[in-house]
Write a structure and sequence with these properties.
The complex is a heterodimer. By secondary structure, chain A is α+β, with helices and mostly antiparallel strands. Chain A has 22 helices and 52 strands. Chain B folds into two domains: 93 residues, Gyrase A, domain 2, CATH 3.30.1360.120; 64 residues, Alpha-Beta Plaits. The chains are: A alpha+beta, B alpha+beta.
Chain lengths: 987, 173
């Protein structure tokens, strides 16, 4: 026989049938069913194959700990493998498929592994697949992974949305069973901000499966009333379908809400999952207790189920497990199940109680075998019988369902996530939460409290007490009498059952049986952490929720010590698996990172720019024109045009910092290694900023706009870093200086106008006199434009080596000003140029960027030694710059390099060898930091850092690209390839 | 030479009207960054700023944004800066910062998707402000009224922030 739906009962909505399929077979359940309950109601016992031996497996639990009923839900991009059927709500059209079987669930070739099981014990793979070593990655591992395992992820993109959200509360209650509901009410009624999170669709926990009465109502009705009251409180938020998966520093809890995983057609405007970060002043863990399996032969045959789960399917979902049911228990919980089965019309019930005097108050009709055990269960894809051992005799009993209860383990995972170790309680036969926790307490069954009334009392008292600590006046709620409950009290554990014939599984998901643990101890892996890794017990998606305590106890027995001495493995987030979708949230695809756009982005788009991502900025890289076949052609044209006519380049992304305060000059003098104290108003100066260790940190120009106002530019890459650095200097190093800093990067649209005709073009726009006498190289001034329409800032600085200006205007005017400059420059041949041409121009001129300022160079290495005045009393990096190593004449120094054959090329990153030296790293003389094709010289050129480079100009060398096997004869030269006398610059 | 220069708005977007929420780009008026010595309060600044139609938003110790819907002329801004000295230095950020308002009962729900700040009225009362991440973008957040917030973001991120807010509020249709 098989499980079946009872004609009445349960919390399902029998007026709303729901169609779904399992392995292609059309089935029907009801609204309110889980996939597991619907499968059982349809008589499906076999739902999966085990990980290693491919043994037939059925539904074992009714909750998050399920190790067997892992199925793949959905199709295409919505395929979700390893979904626990026990946690999946049924919805119309749900498609579920079994996993890890071929060709079908019923006929699985992989089950041949079972025949080989005597050879496949723990450690088999480690011992067998050692040689040849090269085979492991290429042959053994792919084969083993294919043969064993879980479901397969889809390669298609997930079409659904995910998001993240923060929440704050006085009290977070995790779990909405009796204790959790009472606690939430105790604090909520007082006015505290409460969040009540529960992993199930319907909060209520064990109350939803309970037949006892509370305060004159049925347990589910009682739960519903409490939830209704909580929902009506504005200060209480109920989060159903929300698993709190981790406890983190700052009393922050991670939780994932399955917002639309229960819907056939998710609303595209809502996420399917939401990742919560909940900041709680206090939290109460009301997660209940996990019922433990018993380790007997064949305890994994479909039809064997946890007693509490069987009661849940019976009472909550109206599904009877079979017609001849046995209950193997070590405590009184089995009697509550027996009573409910009888009430539901299942008349053939046998209780096998390991205790000689268990269930003495039970008055039902079930047969009771006291002092007995189930030694073995029998059957293939379905349970057919069990062997009972009692009083020295054995009995074979025909059954189609077997419930088991090996005691209860408080669910304490979250309480251990911040490093606390659980402790063993002999009284409770369970591991209890660490003591001395801050910000988190446990209530109800999670704290080892038994019975509904006691859990309600505990939750109500602690919830109200916490509300008082938050400053609210609280009163402990009262709930009336509980009637008809058979509460399971702690009982003597039963770890080992003698005389077992079949395979007795400890960890269902990893196919670890009791002999594997004994083997681990014999082979020296008796430490709990080693045994976990040797046998794989406690691994994979269920993380040993059902198995860990049994495994620890069996290890303890094999070692002859107490479970307290064995201890547990380490509890870490996540409590249950969390999808990558939820962790990524909206940050994928186009939204992987924000986009930062220059105020000239639209202008560049108008001119056909090809953009390149530079950090978060989108920079115009080049501006292709009709007829140009590749980017190099466009870049060469732009470069030449700047040299001959003029070009406009968007440099708005440069970091810009406004520095004010009466000590601003002194401040700058200390952060730059070169002199800034006497920079006159109206002048710009190139500055080098060192790190404390003497190496160059960043460079840029800083202009003095007024006596106490400076305008600093930084490199694009280091804009925020320099700002942070300056703030640190101002706030922490020299708080006595009056200096104030404001980042103005986004305030200004800044454009470089470079080329021999730059002055002529700008003169039509800028109201000031731009003659060389009035506005010479390194002049800087606030200027008005267009007859006073706009105030801007003009700097006579040049990265290209040409006569050049940088013009900054308020960002909103940027596009209009750029348009006007292009118009004014049309007759002068102006063209836009991008960062690629900018790079070529600066390499030709020998100007450095972070290609050269790579964290290993000093001012002297780049030829800037004279910029650092010896007389300057102090600046950041001064002391360390004096180290011998930083003044070693053998250091790498900046040089230029050209190929001997103008048609030859070399690449950035290539190494420099002496002319006749062998290609080996011990002969390395340095490396190429920047390279490009120079339209000016008609060949590849490069900048390089070369040992004693400054004195080796003219030396023939070999440029070696070891990755590509390229050798290019070249010659070292001055790094300034263009206009070494600065005649263009100063024109 | 153009007769008059055209301003390109940082955020040329129509307001997003959701159920219980309105998101709108505020006028690109005035945002002044006031820099005073650490430890000084805003008391000496309020009257001058009020006269110029500007409201204060605290930024950090000794720093505020003075914001207003109207554009201050260069002359007016320079005059104001001169009057505020030596109490505070003024740095114009009117083009560098973009203001976005979220109003309605769902505003906190949407903002909570981006910020770790506790937005309850007790923890984040009216006029309270903080610099915080909204998702991946740093922003300055002020509570203007019980259910109205002002975000000030860097101009370069304004479009990205707007798109994020659009997505974050989509569930409110």
């Amino acid at each position: 026989m098989t499980p079946y739906r009872l004609p009445q009962g349960g919390l399902i909505d029998r007026s709303t049938p729901v169609s779904f399929s399992f392995d292609g077979q059309a089935l029907q359940g009801f609204a309110g069913d889980s996939l597991a309950s619907a499968l059982l109601a349809n008589g499906r016992l076999l739902v999966g194959r085990s990980f290693k031996y491919h043994r037939p497996r059925g539904i074992l639990t009714a909750g998050a700990a399920e190790p067997n009923a892992l199925v793949t839900i959905g199709r295409d991009g919505r395929t979700e493998p390893n979904t626990r059927a026990t946690m999946q709500e049924l919805y119309e059209g749900l498609e579920a498929k079994s996993q890890n079987r071929w060709p079908s669930l019923d006929v699985d070739i992989g089950s041949l592994n079972s025949l080989l099981s005597p050879f496949l014990g723990a450690g088999f793979y480690y011992k067998t697949f050692m040689w040849p070593a090269a085979f492991w990655e290429k042959v053994y591992e792919p084969f083993i992974r294919r043969a064993a395992g879980l479901g397969r992820a889809t390669h298609e993109a997930d079409p659904d949305a995910y998001e993240k959200s923060w929440a704050h509360c006085d009290l977070l209650v995790i779990g909405a069973g009796a204790a959790g509901l009472a606690a939430a009410l105790g604090a909520g009624r007082a006015g505290a901000r409460v969040i009540l999170a529960d992993e199930h669709a319907q909060p209520g926990g064990g109350l939803l499966s309970e037949t006892a009465g509370i305060g004159g109502k049925s347990a589910p009705a009682f739960a519903a009333d409490l939830l209704a009251e909580l929902a009506a409180l504005e200060n209480v938020t109920i989060l159903p379908r929300t698993t709190v998966f981790g406890w983190y520093d700052g009393n922050v809890f991670g939780a994932v809400e399955r917002v639309q995983k229960h819907l056939a057609h998710p609303d595209a405007h809502r996420p399917v999952e939401r990742l919560w970060r909940i900041v709680a002043k206090q939290a109460l863990l009301a997660t209940g207790a996990e019922e433990r399996p018993l380790v007997f032969g064949g305890n994994d045959i479909p039809g064997v189920m946890m007693a509490g789960a069987m009661r849940c399917y019976l009472n909550r979902y109206g599904v009877a497990p079979g017609r001849q049911v046995a209950i193997f228990t070590i405590n009184d919980s089995g009697y509550a199940l027996a009573r409910d089965l009888e009430t539901a019309g299942v008349s053939q019930v046998t209780i096998i109680d390991s205790r000689p005097e268990g269930g003495i108050d039970y008055a039902g009709a079930a047969r009771i075998v006291r002092g007995g055990v189930v030694r073995d269960a029998h059957g293939g894809k379905a349970l057919t019988s069990i062997t009972i051992a009692a009083g020295g005799k054995t009995e074979r009993l025909r059954v189609d369902a077997l419930a088991m209860s090996g005691g209860f383990s408080p669910i304490i995972h979250l309480a251990c996530h911040r490093g606390g170790k659980p402790h063993w309680s002999d009284e409770k036969s369970a591991f209890m939460a660490p003591s001395g926790l801050q910000g988190l307490s446990l209530i109800g069954s999670a704290a080892g409290i038994d019975g509904i009334a006691a859990c309600l009392e505990d939750g109500a008292a602690k919830g109200a007490a916490l509300a008082e600590t938050f400053g609210f006046k609280a009163e402990k709620p009262a709930f009336g009498l509980t009637a008809g409950e058979i509460a399971p009290m702690p009982a003597r554990p039963l770890w080992t059952i003698p005389g077992i014939r079949g395979k007795a599984f400890v960890d269902y998901q990893n196919d670890v049986h009791r002999k594997d643990l004994g083997l681990a101890v014999r082979e020296g892996y008796g430490h709990v952490e080693l045994a976990k890794r040797y046998t794989t017990t406690g691994m994979a998606t269920d993380q040993g929720k059902l198995s860990n305590v049994n495994a620890i106890a069996l290890l303890a027995e094999a070692r002859g010590v107490s479970p307290a001495e064995v201890g547990t493995t380490t509890f870490r987030p996540f409590y249950t698996p969390v999808s990558f979708g939820a962790l990524a949230g909206p940050s994928h695809g186009r939204h992987f990172q924000p986009v930062r756009k220059s105020p000239l982005h639209g202008w560049a788009e108008k001119h056909g720019a090809v953009f390149v991502e530079t950090g978060l900025w989108y920079r115009s890289a080049w501006f292709p024109r009709d007829g140009e076949t590749d980017w190099r052609e466009s870049v060469a044209r732009e470069t030449k045009n700047v040299r001959i006519n003029a070009g406009l380049c968007d440099v708005s992304m440069l970091g810009k910092i406004e520095i004010t305060g009466k000590d601003a000059a002194e401040f700058l003098n200390r952060v730059y290694c070169n002199a800034f104290l006497k920079l006159p108003v109206g002048k710009a100066r190139y500055g080098l900023m060192l790190r404390e260790d003497g190496f160059i940190y960043d460079d840029g120009t800083t202009s003095r706009l007024a006596q106490d106002r400076y305008f600093m530019t930084t490199t694009t890459a280091y804009a925020s870093g320099v700002m942070n650095h300056l703030e640190f200097c101002a706030q922490a190093l020299w708080p006595d200086l009056d200096v104030r800093l404001a980042s103005v990067t986004d305030q200004w649209s800044q454009m470089a106008i470079a080329g021999p005709k730059a002055r002529k073009i700008l003169e039509t726009i800028v109201d000031a006199d731009l003659s060389n006498a009035a506005f010479p190289f390194l002049a800087a001034a606030e200027v008005s434009l267009f007859n006073g329409q706009v105030q801007g800032r003009l700097f006579r600085i040049s990265f290209s080596g040409e006569l050049a200006y940088e013009l900054a205007v308020p960002a909103g005017y940027g596009e209009a000003v750029a348009d006007a400059i292009m118009e004014a420059g049309r007759d002068h041949g102006i063209q836009p140029y991008g960062v690629e041409a900018l790079a070529v121009l600066r390499i030709e001129k020998g100007h450095v960027t972070h290609n050269e300022i790579n964290g290993t160079v000093t001012p002297g290495d780049l030829g800037f030694a004279r910029m650092v005045p010896a007389a300057k009393p102090d600046f950041i990096g001064k002391r360390m710059l004096e180290r011998a190593g930083l003044n070693d004449p053998q250091r790498h120094q900046l040089v230029g390099i050209r190929p001997l054959d103008p048609a030859a090329i070399f690449r950035t990153g290539s190494h420099i060898l002496e002319k006749d030296a062998a290609a080996a790293l011990e002969n390395d003389q340095g490396y190429v930091t920047s390279s490009c094709h120079s339209p000016h010289l008609g060949s590849t050129i490069g900048l390089a850092l070369v040992r004693r480079g400054a004195e080796r100009h003219g030396e023939e060398v070999l440029v070696w690209n070891g990755l590509r096997g390229e050798f290019t004869p070249g010659r070292l030269c001055s790094p300034v390839f263009y206009d070494p006398q600065n005649e263009k610059l100063l024109a | 030479m153009p007769q008059s220069l055209t301003l390109r708005p940082a955020l040329a977007r129509l307001p997003l009207q959701r159920s219980g929420l309105r998101i709108e780009a505020l006028p690109e008026g005035t945002v002044l960054h006031l820099l005073a010595p650490v430890g000084s309060g805003p008391a000496g600044l309020t009257a001058e700023l009020g006269a110029s139609g500007l409201s204060l938003r605290p930024v950090s110790p000794g720093q505020w944004f003075a914001v207003g819907d109207a554009v201050l002329s260069n002359t007016a801004r320079a005059a104001l800066a001169a009057r505020l000295k030596p109490a505070a230095e003024v740095v114009d950020q009117s083009h560098g910062r973009v203001r976005i308002a979220l109003s309605g009962p769902m505003a906190t729900r949407v903002l909570a998707k981006g910020t770790a700040a506790d937005l309850s009225l007790t923890a984040f009362p009216i006029h309270h402000a903080t610099t915080t991440l909204i998702g991946h973008i740093a922003a300055h957040l002020t509570r203007i009224a019980e259910d109205r917030f002002e975000l000030i973001v860097l101009r370069g991120f304004a479009e990205s922030q707007w798109e994020d807010l659009d997505r974050m509020s989509a569930e409110f249709g």
